[in-house]
Design goal:
disordered C terminus, globular, 6 helices, about 25% helix, alpha+beta
């Protein structure tokens, strides 16, 4: 019953969009939580929490400071396969080389094609626990990781800033709901969520403010396949010929943006 009422409210809001969008845009600086934005992000969260497996591609663009030039844009493309609760494979190609991650629920492996080297250690936990632990300990980034966290929406609400619905727009021919928000540190985040009923993210931009100006992180999501049958063997790592085993250290955080 509640969902039915919210759905009607969303359609009513979309119908009034031409009248209300300008006022919303002028008001975005005032901290507030928009009920439509919250509804959309809760639907996103529900979609991710219901997944049994998925494949997707992420194209990311990030800024790196270069003395004398300022922020310079770099990019990566990653292909991810995840099987819940505890298996994943991520292949990343970008400006700083090619890397892969395997996790079969028992062993975590990080492989870099440069030098034909891999790091490997025992670990047991869910995908969310694994991504969180590895990111905190070694700085390894995982594409779209935030969306998989059960508390993702709560984290957005706890920033002390705003969460605003900005209307409907098109990204690469895909109609999307546009959501924006900020936190008390001046970080601004934007989400473009597919309007086709899948509630999947199409694009995300995070703008950070620092002493040097504003830097951006942008991610574009594509090739979503929900709940595919994925062979367990995909998550097993076999060391290539002549590969050397090395210790995973925090310097990898600089390589896997």
């Amino acid at each position: 019953m509640y969902k039915h009422i919210v759905s009607k409210f969303l359609l009513f809001t979309l119908a009034l969009l031409p009248l209300s969008l300008r006022a919303q845009q002028q008001d975005i600086a005032a901290p507030r939580i928009d009920s439509v934005a919250l509804y959309v992000m809760e639907k996103v969260n529900a979609t991710f929490q219901s997944l049994k497996s998925c494949n997707f591609t992420t194209t990311t663009y990030y800024d790196v400071w270069v003395d004398g030039l300022g922020y310079i844009k770099h990019s990566n493309v990653s292909h991810s396969s995840m099987q819940f609760p505890d298996k994943m494979k991520v292949q990343l190609t970008g400006d700083k080389g090619n890397h892969s991650v395997w996790y079969d629920g028992k062993v975590f492996t990080y492989y870099t094609f440069q030098g034909n080297q891999y790091s490997q250690f025992n670990f047991k936990g869910s995908l969310v626990q694994t991504m969180d632990t590895i990111n905190n300990a070694y700085g390894v980034e995982f594409p779209a990781a935030d969306f998989f966290y059960p508390g993702f929406v709560d984290d957005l609400l706890n920033t002390g800033g705003s969460l605003i619905y900005l209307g409907v727009t098109s990204i690469d021919g895909q109609v999307c709901f546009h959501i924006a928000g900020n936190d008390t540190n001046g970080t601004v985040f934007q989400f473009w969520i597919r309007e086709d009923g899948t509630w999947l993210p199409k694009k995300m931009i995070i703008t950070y403010k620092d002493e040097s100006g504003n830097s951006e992180y942008e991610a574009i999501y594509s090739d979503w396949v929900l709940n595919p049958e994925i062979p367990s063997a995909m998550f097993d790592f076999t060391a290539p010929p002549a590969a050397s085993k090395v210790k995973l250290v925090k310097t990898l955080s600089d390589e896997n943006q």
